[in-house]
C-alpha cells in the first residue's frame, strides 16, 4: 500500500494530473473533474495556458517539469 504524505506537493499533483490527462486524451471522462479543470491545474503548475483539448501539449509540459525537478 502506498501512502501519500503530502498531497499538496506539486510533484504529487503532477503525477495525478498526468494520469488524468492520459485518460482524457483517450476519450475517457471523469464525472468529478472536467478537462477544463484539469488543464487549469496544469496551468497553475507550469505557468502556461492551454486551450480546450490540448491534453498532449499539457502532458509534454508536465513531463518536462517532472524531469527538471528530478534531475
How would you describe this structure to a colleague?
This protein has three helices and no strands. It has 71 residues and is mainly α. The protein has one domain. Helix 1 runs antiparallel to helix 2, helix 1 packs antiparallel against helix 3 and helix 2 runs parallel beside helix 3. The relative contact order is 0.18.
Helices, strands, pairings?
Blueprint: H1 10-25, H2 35-46, H3 55-70
Summarize the structure.
The chain is mostly helical and 71 residues long. It has one domain.
How many strand elements?
0
Kindly estimate the percentage of residues that lie in beta strands according to DSSP: under 5%
- Helix and strand composition category: mainly alpha
Mean pLDDT: 90
- Give the total of domains: 1
Shape annotation:
globular
Radius of gyration: 12 Å
Number of helices: 3
Major sheet description = none
Helical residue percent? 55-70%
Q: List the quaternary state of the chains.
A: single chain
Order of helices and strands: HHH
Note poorly predicted spans: none
Distance between the termini: 26 Å
Primary descriptors:
mainly alpha, single chain, 0% strand
Amino acid at each position: 500500500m502506498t501512502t501519500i504524505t503530502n498531497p499538496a506537493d506539486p510533484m504529487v499533483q503532477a503525477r495525478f494530473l498526468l494520469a488524468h490527462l492520459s485518460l482524457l486524451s483517450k476519450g475517457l471522462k471523469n464525472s468529478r473533474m472536467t478537462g477544463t479543470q484539469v488543464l487549469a491545474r496544469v496551468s497553475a503548475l507550469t505557468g502556461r495556458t492551454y486551450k480546450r483539448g490540448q491534453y498532449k501539449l499539457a502532458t509534454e509540459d508536465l513531463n518536462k517539469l517532472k524531469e527538471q525537478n528530478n534531475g
